[in-house]
Structures are given as C-alpha cells and as structure tokens.
Specification:
This protein is an alpha/beta fold. It is built from 52 helices and 20 strands. It is extended and about 155 Å long. Pfam families: DDE_1.
Length: 1245
C-alpha cells in the first residue's frame, strides 16, 4: 500500500488559493509572460524594451490574453485565474445604467438585468405581436409558468441566500418583475431582478456612547456596514444598479427609507411576477400612506391601492375618497377625449349652415350694444332639420353650451363657464321650462340662482348677461297655443324671433324636396314659394314693428324731449324719480298701461344707449327747460317742508319768489310781479305737482312726523317681518248697559253702584261662612282670612317692586334724563348706535356686562322705538347739552387717534382740551388759555373715560408703512416669480437653561457654576414660508473659542451632520462675516429652486448693516428688507411666533438631559447634540406661513390675520400702502438714530 503523506498545519487547496495576493501574483506572471512573448516575436532585447511592453499591458485585451495562456498557467494560480476571468466577464444591462465597482453601507436595493433578461416564451411573444396595446397583467401571469423564468428565479434565490448568510443580512426582499418599457419597445418579454437588504448592528454606536445621552442613543441606530466587492455583487456576470440611495438620511429616516424599499418589492405592482421577503409589511414594520400614493402616482399599482390604504390605518377615508375622485375624473377625461375624436371624425361630413336673415338682422344685433335685458331665440320645426346644429354654428361649438331639456323643468347649467361660453342652447326645451325661469331667459345684468329645492342645498348661481339664449323645439307652437293668454303674451314679448324652420339647415341649403317623392316635393315647393311671397310683406311689417319698438324704447320721447329728460337726470345728481316725472310730462304715452309709458328701468336703458355727446352737451333749450323743472321740484320740496316741519302753508307769491330764486339763482331787483300773473303761474304749478290750495290744519305736520317715524322704522327693520301692535285704554263698567228689548214687567232687584268682591258666601244674604260653623272652625277661618289679607298686601308690594325692577331692566338702568341724553346722542351722531351704547354704559346703574339690564345695541334700539315721538323732536336743554359734550369728547378721541396713527404725534393735554372746546362750542373762546391745573384735571378724567394712556408715543407707524411699501414694491417687481419669504434673527442659548419651578425635597448635590449660568452661545435661526424649503435652510451656533474648544469640536464632528453649523470665533456675537456666510448658504439653497425669488427680512442689528452684507445679498440674488428700528416687537416673525416656543422646546430637552445625567450636570457635547436637532425637530416641523401673514408679509395682505398688537397700532381696519419704490427719505427712517447709511439706498436698489 502506498504510504500516505501526513498533512500538518493549514494546507492549500489543489488548485491554489484565490485571495488578493494570489490574484496579484497571477497578474504579474501574466504581464511578464506576455511581454516576453512580444519581445521574442520581434526579436527585441534589453531592460528598456521589457519595461515598455510591461507598461502597455494595461491597455491590452487582458481577458483574451488570460484565456490564451490558461494551459501555461501554473497549478497554484488555477483558481485565481478562474475567479479573475469570472470577474472580468461583465454583461451589459438591457438598459444603460451605471453600476458600482463595490458597495459599502448598511443597506440598499440592487437591480439586475443582462442577456438572461430576454425570455424566449412563445405565448408571450404571440401576445405582444397581437397589437399595440398589451395587457401587462396577462403577460406577467403567462411568464410565471415559463421554464426560463423559473430557472432564473431559482438561481437568484440560491445566490441571494448564500450572499445573505455570508454577510449576515438581517432583512432581505427579492422580486422578479417584467421590464415594461423594454418589453413594449422591443416586443420581446424582458425581465429584471430586485434585491433589497439591510443590517442592524450597534457597533458604530458604541464609539459615541460615552458622549451621548440616552435619548440620542434611541435616535441614532446606524446599521452595521458591509463591504461588497464587484465580484460579490455579480449575478450571472451582471453587475447591479443601485436603485435606492439612503446615504443622505440620518437617524430614524434611514430606517424608514429601508422599510420603504422593502415595501416597494412586496407590493404587487404592474408587471410583478415573483416576490419573496423575510420581513412582511404591516407585521415587521409600519407602512406610510405616502408610499402607496407614490406608487399609485407612478402608475405602478392601481387595483390594490385601496387595500393598502386600509391596511395603513391612517386617514383611510381621505385617501380612499381621493382614489374614487381620481377614477371619476379619469372617466370624465376619457369621455372628453372620445367626444373630441368623434367631432374630428364627423367634421368632414358637416356642411356650411344656411343663413337666416331673421337671425342675422333682428336677433344677433342686440348683442352689439348694452341692454338691460335681451330677448331669446326660438327655433321651431320638425325633427332632423338641424336646428341644434344651426344654433351651435352661430357662435361656434367651442363657445356654445348645450343642455338637454327634454322632459325636464330645471335646466342643468352647472358646467356653464361664463369665461368660455357665449351662447346657451336649450335643446328640446318646453314653454313651461321657460315660464318657470323667466329671469333666466331675460338675461339681466345680475346673477341668477338655479337648482332650488326645499332645503336649498344645491343652489348655484350663473351670469348670463350678454349671452345668447336659444331654444330648439319640435312642439313649441302647439304648447304655445295651449297656454293661458298672460303666459302666451309674456313669451311672445320676450322671444326675439319664433322661426318655423322648413329647410334642412344641416345640408348647406339643399331643399328637403330634393330627397322626397314627387308628391311631397311638389307640396314643399308650393310652401317655399308661398314663404317667398310672404317674405316681402313680412319685411314691411318688421319695419313698422321696428319703428313702433323704437318709439316704445324711447318712451314716446322725441329728440328734444330726450335731451331735456337727460339734462334733468344729470343736473339733479342722477335722480331717476325726477327724470321719470319730466318724461311723463313730455311723453306721447300718457296712460300707465301703455307699453311705452316712461318707467325708471326704461329711462335708465334709454340713457345707457344715448351717445356720450348728449351727456356732455344738452343744448341751450334742453338745459333751460331742465333748470326750470328742477326749480319747480325744489319749490315743491320747500312747500312740503313748510307744511310738515313748520305747519305753514306758503302763499302763491312766496312760492313764485322761491321758484324764481331757485331758477335764476338770485332775486330780481325789478319789484314784485303782478298778482294775476303769479296766480296763473301758481295754478299751473299746482296742477303739475299735485298741490292743493286750502287752509292747512295744524295737525298735518304732526301726522307727517308720525308717518316719518313709522317709515324710518320700516326701513330700519327691512330685513324682518313687521308686527304692528296697537294699545289703548277703555272703561268697562261693573255692569254692562242692557241692550234694547221687549219688557213686560220691571226688574225685581236693582244693581248697586258698586260690585264688591267679598270673602263671604254671596248666596246667603251676606252672612259670613264662619258664623254657621263651630267655634274652633270659625276661629281658624278668621285666622286664615287675616293671614290672607296680610299676604295680599305683601304680594302687592312684591309685584310693584318686580314691575319697577322689570321697567328698570327694560330701560337699561337709565332714568328719564339719562334716556333723553342717550337718545340725543343717538340722533345727533347720525344714528351711531356704538356711541349711544357708550354713553348709556356711562349713565346706567348697571355697570357689569353680566347684569340683566346692562346696555346693549339691541336693548337700546328697542328702548328708542318705545320712546314717544316728542322725545325724538325735543330732547330738552340739559340732555342736548350733555349729548353735545359727549360727542365733542368722542370727536376729540378720534382726533387723538388720527394724530397718533397718521402723523405719529401725541397731543398734549392743552391741545386735547382746546380741540374739545372747539368741538363743543363751535369756535375758540377769546378768553385766553385756561389754567394748566384745571386742564390737567379735566384731561385726567377724559383719559379715564375713553381709555387713553399718557406716555411717549413711539414713532413707529410711518416706519411700518415704509416697511410695507418696500415689501409691496418687491412683490410687484417680482410678480412673475414665486416669492420665498425668509427671516433671520439671533437669540442667546445659555450653556445651561434656567430650571423651571417644581417640587423640591432636598437640595441639589451638584451646583452649576456661575460662568455656566451666565454664559451663552448665539443661535442664528432662519425660517421661511415654504415647508419644502424649510428643512434645507442652514442654522448656525456661534460661540467663543474658550467654550467651543478643539476637543469639543472634534467630538462634535464625529456626530452625524445636521443643518446646524458650529462656528467658533473670538466672540459669540454675530459679525458681518457670519452674515456673508449665511447669505452664501442661502444662495446655494435657492439654486435648487430656480423659480423662487428670496426676500430676506432682518432687523437693524449692527452686524446686518455693513455694506459687504448688502453686496453679498445682491451677488446671491437675495432681496434684503430691513425691519425698521424699534419695530421688531411688531414686525419680526421670529420674535413674535418662534423664539418663545423655541426656548420652551430647549428647556424641555435640557430638563430631559439633566434627568438622565449624573448629579444633574449636562455634558456639553450632549447639549450641543440637542441643539443640532433643532433645525429638524423644531423649525422644520412647523409651517411658518402664518407667522409672515401676521406681520403683513403676504401678497395680497390680509388685515384680518394681523396679530393684535399690530392691528391696534395701525388702527384696525388696516389700510395697506401702495407698492411704489421707496425714496431715500423713507429708507433713511428705517435705520437707528444717528446712523448714517449713505451707501444703503444704492446697495439695496
């Protein structure tokens, strides 16, 4: 037997190792062997030649050289040679995508494709060759049974299992899918493979554990990094493409990104063939609905989207309703596309429509001039004549809205677009539909509501003024004959034309008899000849009707009368009542029932149709007549005032002199005109104006005052149903007087003069009840009667007290004098209920708002309505004086507010007193200045009554207006771009935060040093009004080098980076260099959003004002808007809305660090780590758009959302200034006092 050699130690395999060293030695051997062969073939010698051939080996075809020399390779390099050949053999993917040489990370997704991706499966090839549209789901189902696909999937699963065991993958998901794009392009079934893996190991976390507290450890859970070489990544010679890159994610975001990748491979997408995973979704990790939405938006899933939304268990209703709404819109778009395609196919078959002179000459011209209402068109005729097609051709199909009205009484016009449609066609509409919607078919210049129901839930409004309304019908004439006379008259008066169509308007004027039998053709020819014969007669009738219609439209007024009426209308300040009166006098139509009788609506339409020259030049005669008429009208009003207000009936001479003065403008110095002439003129004037000549009763003005009061109340409560009540007293006798009747015998008993209600039984002749009872019962009855009398007196007093209390509540705690004063304030202030409530609160006995009788607007209005008319006419001297004093104080308060807001001035007590004195008396008293002591005492009481404070007024109002004007100017300048509002400001962050109040049992073990309590860093924060940009904005923490040591900075750099940048410098205060760096970083962010224009709000801190800061902003194309000095408390969004919550957020985080630290001393690195999370955890989690809106930084600005201090400062309601370019003076007022900024205007503008 052969002797077997004993193996000692580690032995090599028979074909040699395949490690890195072996492959390196093989390449050196191969290079030298190849160089020697080349030199031998060319008979070359020497070391220089050998080195040249060795250098050219890198550009040679090394895989082919290795394959040629395989027989010559030593055995110890055999395995290394096979592995190198396998690594060099790389197949090209079916889609040109970059492939990594190696991978190092915690998890990603790979996609594989190559020559194996092309599947030879005959049923699938037949399905692809059947037509351009292919059912992807059917194709994927067929490939599941293809042997080639099954073999690829088995090999991929085996390879993936081996790779996962080798590198200890925690979670693995794989999928085999159809490459839809390549399949449809090449018409060959093409597949690709997906592999998703990730690892989780806390080895990297242990390096940072000494520096981080507990909460940070839970946030940072980086996975164990694996290193995969190119050889390890290759599957069947194909290198993958990385389709998921989560290198930018940090903390929990890494885990969510990996979870999303696993979910992507587990979903049954379009073209999905096989799927397998070790971490099922919804069991090992939660799924965000946004992931499902992303797949649905990418058209990767459709049928299963609703199922996944339900499994996500978040906002299920909203997402499912979005799915249903999308499906509905898809169906609507499909129908629109089919309609457009059908119209395109039918366009060659459509002929030119015939021209109907009645439509072009009578109907269409009314849309060329303004009119209050327009008539609609009715096309009536048998079916298949093309009435609808002709109506659609008048304004074009794109500008015509067609609604089907067959068998309905409510037209559907919800899809009518006023910006697009110029014509509405009511196809097969009945006369009843038109009568139900009269206002719609009159097309007035007002919105019309449709869709009425019992609840009014579906009411919508449309605007059809200057829009053509056309009705097409087959039975209009028949239905019209069956209507009542009133309805038929309305339809005939409002329908412009009722055309009975006898030719086919769809066939370019080809008569119908050309396509009929002979008998029918002869009848049609006869009818058409009769139509032509009647057309001339109809033309004359139309002309007569047009003349009559024009006379009716002009209200029976000739040219001179029209000019006179227009002159009265214009000279009377557009008083339509006077215009109607003079038109009735000049019109040929004298009866109100006439069609052309002048009315207000008809005259307004007539004035709108008048040329502009008639409005500017009336003519001498028309102007003279108009002045005479207006003088008569003014005289009539004067006589009415004399009758009503003064109870006087002026004589004819007084009336004539008043008219003469009103007509000429002054009294003529020619003496009194003759009495006979005056009486004759007065007689005509009385006939024209309905004035009677008689003795005026002295009660007329009282009745008129009563009626005026009643009319005022009707107008005041016009929105309510008026319930008229009347109360009065009448006497009722103890016995009623008997009526007349038949008497046989006199009455036995006589009624006494009094009817007494007694406590005894009146049936027993006045004998008390207790007289017929036992003694005990009688005594009890007497006691009860006495108690009843006592209770009655007490109850009477209580009723009287309750009535007095109720009356006091009804009068709002105001006595008679106070009520008269309140009413005087209400009337003299032009019925200002707010001032009446204010003076009532001052005079009322109820001072608390919760009291039942506390004065309110509704209670005072009810009290005023109950006041007698004499109180409205005569307030009394004392009440009028008090009311004038109160109104003078109110006017003085408004004047002080105007001085504060408009001019930035705070008037002194003396100025306020003098203004009140002028408002109260009506002029300044020439008695000198009152004593200052008296003025100060009066001003003190006035300030207490009107809530005015005595302090120095900040000059901020005009600064705020200058700030808003600058902002409006920039909005107009960049109107074509999306404005990104930014705000930057600094705040101090202490080395330790001040602890909050709490329960203390024992003092703290460790004490924070005084330096740590007082020292602070500067936190430079930045917010914007766009949530998608906020997370990318930089933040800065600036500290001195004595606190931010090199050791601390090195430890901080080992932490994962965030949006917070740490800057260590000589001082913790911000400098111009810091601002330049900030603007440079903002510019980098704005490059990601080329359509946005940045506007940066910043205060007037010294580090913000240098010239280099403004120049840096101009280089970065960022517009600077400086918040004026002393205005940051009302205009700085960060100060108003952010820093308070930010400090509370930091205080809570600091308390959490203290709770987990030893002896309550927080590690500086841990505190810095918490600050590094602020850009993401605090600033990026909130939408700051409302913060900018609260200071008026929106376009357009909304005064309702301004914060309370700014609204009070600018006197709400706020009026924003116009956006014009600020002047140098306005820009200079922004800076702090004594700061000369000569370079600012040029640098900013």
């Amino acid at each position: 037997m052969p002797v077997r050699r004993r193996l000692c130690g580690k032995q090599l395999p028979p074909d040699g190792p395949s490690d890195r060293e072996a492959r390196k030695q093989l390449l050196i051997w191969l290079r030298d062997k190849w160089a020697a062969q080349r030199m031998a073939a060319r008979n070359e010698h020497g070391h220089a030649k050998r080195q040249r051939w060795r250098a050219s080996f890198a550009q040679a075809d090394r895989p082919q050289i290795l394959r040629d020399m395989l027989p010559q390779i030593p055995v110890k390099f055999a395995r290394a040679a096979r592995d190198i050949l396998a690594g060099w053999h790389v197949e090209e993917p079916i889609v040109n995508e970059p492939s990594p040489q190696a991978y190092k990370g915690t998890g990603t997704m790979f996609r594989y494709s190559g020559s194996f991706s092309m599947i030879e499966h005959q049923p699938s090839l037949d399905l692809l060759a059947a037509g351009p549209s292919v059912d992807i789901d059917l194709l994927s189902a067929g490939l599941r049974n293809a042997p080639q696909v099954l073999a690829i999937w088995d090999d991929f699963q085996s390879w993936m299992t081996e790779l996962g065991n080798k590198y200890r993958f925690e979670r693995v998901s794989t999928a085999l899918e159809l490459h839809t794009e390549v399949t449809l392009q090449r018409r060959v079934p093409s597949i690709h493979l997906h592999m998703m893996f990730d690892t989780r190991d806390s080895a990297a976390m242990r390096a940072l554990a000494p520096y981080l507290p507990g909460p940070c450890k839970r946030m940072l859970r980086p996975g164990r990094q694996v290193h995969l070489s190119g050889q390890s990544l290759a599957f069947r010679g194909c290198k993958p493409h990385i389709s998921l890159d989560s290198s930018q994610a940090r903390g929990r975001s890494v885990r969510r990104a990996l979870d999303q990748g696993h979910f992507y491979l587990q979903v049954e997408k379009k073209g999905s063939i096989f799927r397998q995973t070790t971490c099922p979704a919804y069991q090992t990790f939660t799924v965000s609905p946004d992931w499902v939405t992303g797949l649905w938006q990418g058209d990767k899933i459709n049928k299963c989207a609703e199922q996944h939304y339900v499994q996500c268990k978040r906002n299920i209703r909203a997402y499912c309703e979005n799915l249903k709404y999308h499906g509905q819109k898809q169906r609507e778009l499909y129908i629109q596309q089919q309609q457009a395609a059908a119209a395109e196919l039918l366009r060659p078959l459509q002929k030119e429509p015939v021209e109907l002179p009645e439509v072009t000459q009578l109907y269409l011209p009314q849309f060329t001039r303004p009119m209050h209402r327009r008539k609609f068109l009715v096309l009536n005729g048998p079916t298949r004549l093309g009435k609808t097609v002709y109506a659609r051709s008048l304004f074009g199909a794109d500008h015509t809205y067609e609604t089907n009205c067959s068998g309905v009484l409510e037209p559907d016009m919800r899809e009518y677009d006023v910006l697009r449609h110029r014509c509405v066609v009511f196809d097969e509409a009945s006369v009843h539909l038109v009568l139900k919607h009269k206002k719609l078919f009159q097309a007035p210049p007002a919105e019309i509501s449709l869709g009425h129901s019992a609840t009014g839930m579906y009411v919508y409004r449309i605007w059809v003024w200057n829009v053509a309304l056309i009705v097409t019908s087959n039975v209009w004439t028949t239905e019209l004959e069956q209507l009542a006379a009133e309805d038929r008259e309305w339809l005939e008066g409002n329908a412009s034309l009722h055309i009975v169509c006898l030719c086919d308007t769809r066939l370019a004027g080809v008569p119908v008899h050309a396509m009929m039998p002979d008998a029918a053709a002869a009848e049609v020819v006869r009818l058409q000849q009769a139509l032509v014969a009647n057309r001339n007669e109809l033309k004359g009738a139309y002309q007569q009707a047009r003349r009559q219609q024009k006379r009716v439209q002009c209200c029976g007024l000739g040219p001179a009368a029209r000019r006179t009426t227009l002159a009265v209308y214009v000279l009377s300040n557009y008083n339509i009542a006077l215009a109607v009166r003079v038109a009735c006098r000049l019109s040929t139509y004298k009866r109100p029932e006439d069609a052309g009788f002048p009315t207000a609506a008809a005259l307004e339409e007539l004035f709108l149709e008048s040329p502009p020259t008639d409005w500017l030049e009336f003519g001498e005669l028309a102007a003279q007549r108009a002045h005479a008429f207006l003088a008569e009208a003014a005289t009539s009003d004067w006589v009415r005032d004399c009758n009503v207000l003064h109870g006087v009936a002026p004589s004819s001479m007084d009336v004539f002199l008043h008219w003469e003065h009103a007509f000429i403008g002054h009294q003529l110095d020619v003496g009194v005109p003759p009495r006979r002439y005056v009486n004759k003129w007065a007689q005509k004037w009385r006939a024209r104006w309905g004035v009677r000549r008689k003795v005026l009763k002295q009660v007329v003005h009282k009745v008129n005052a009563f009626w005026r009061h009643l009319r005022y109340l009707y107008q005041k409560f016009a929105d309510r149903d008026i319930l008229m009540l009347n109360v009065d007293e009448t006497s009722v006798g103890y016995t009623m007087k008997p009526r007349l009747g038949n008497v046989v015998a006199p009455a036995v008993a006589k009624v006494s003069s009094l009817h007494i209600v007694c406590l005894c039984d009146t049936r027993l002749a006045g004998v008390p009840v207790h007289a017929m009872m036992p003694d005990a019962a009688a005594a009890e009855v007497v006691r009860l009667q006495q108690a009843l009398v006592a209770n009655r007196n007490e109850l009477k007093g209580a009723y009287q007290q309750a009535r007095r209390q109720q009356k006091r509540v009804q009068c709002c705690g105001l006595g008679p004098a106070a009520r008269r004063t309140t009413l005087a304030v209400y009337v003299l202030s032009n019925y200002n209920i707010a001032l009446a409530v204010r003076v009532a609160c001052r005079l009322s006995t109820y001072k608390r708002p919760e009291d039942a009788g506390f004065p309110t607007a509704a209670a005072l209005e009810e009290l005023f309505l109950e006041s007698p008319p004499t109180d409205w006419l005569e307030f009394g001297e004392l009440a009028a004086q008090r009311a004038h004093a109160f109104l003078a104080e109110a006017a003085t308060s408004d004047w002080v507010r105007d001085c504060n807001v408009l001019h930035g001035v705070a008037p002194s007590s003396m100025d306020v007193f003098l203004h009140w004195e002028h408002a109260f008396i009506g002029h300044q008293l020439d008695v000198g200045v009152p004593p200052g002591r008296y003025v100060n005492k009066w001003a003190q009481k006035w300030r207490a009554r009107w809530g005015v404070r005595r302090k120095v007024l900040k000059q901020v109002v005009h600064k705020v207006n200058a700030f808003w004007r600058h902002l409006r100017y920039l909005y107009q300048k960049f109107a074509d771009r999306d404005i990104l509002m930014l705000n930057v400001d600094e705040t101090s962050i202490g080395y330790t935060m001040k602890p909050r109040l709490g329960n203390v049992v024992a003092p703290a073990v460790a004490k924070v040093s005084k330096q740590d309590r007082r020292g602070a860093w500067t936190y430079l924060s930045l917010i914007c009004n766009a949530t998608d940009v906020q997370g990318k904005l930089p933040h800065y923490l600036i500290g001195s080098k004595t606190r931010l040591t090199c050791k601390l900075l090195r430890a901080q750099k080992a932490l994962p980076p965030t949006r917070l940048k740490i800057i260590a410098q000589k001082s913790a205060w911000t400098s111009a260099a810091n601002m330049v760096q900030l603007l440079r970083d903002i510019g980098e962010v704005l490059k990601l959003y080329p359509g946005k224009q940045g506007i940066l709000l910043l205060d007037c801190a010294p580090s913000h004002l240098p010239k280099e800061v403004m120049q840096a902003a101009k280089r970065q194309k960022v517009q600077l808007v400086y918040i004026p000095a002393q205005c940051t408390d009302v205009l700085q969004p960060l100060d108003i809305c952010a820093f308070a919550g930010f400090k509370a957020f930091l205080r809570a985080r600091h308390e959490g660090l203290k709770a987990t630290s030893q002896h309550g001393l927080v590690n500086p690195l841990a505190w810095i780590w918490e600050l590094m999370q602020c850009p993401r955890e605090f600033f990026a989690q909130k939408a700051w758009r409302s913060s900018f809106a609260a200071v008026g930084c929106t376009n357009p600005p909304d005064p309702q959302v301004l914060h309370r201090e700014l609204r009070e400062l600018m006197d709400f309601p706020v009026s924003f200034p116009e956006g014009v370019k600020p002047t140098r003076e306005e820009v200079q007022c922004l800076w702090p006092e004594r700061r000369r900024m000569v370079y600012a205007y040029k640098a900013l503008f």
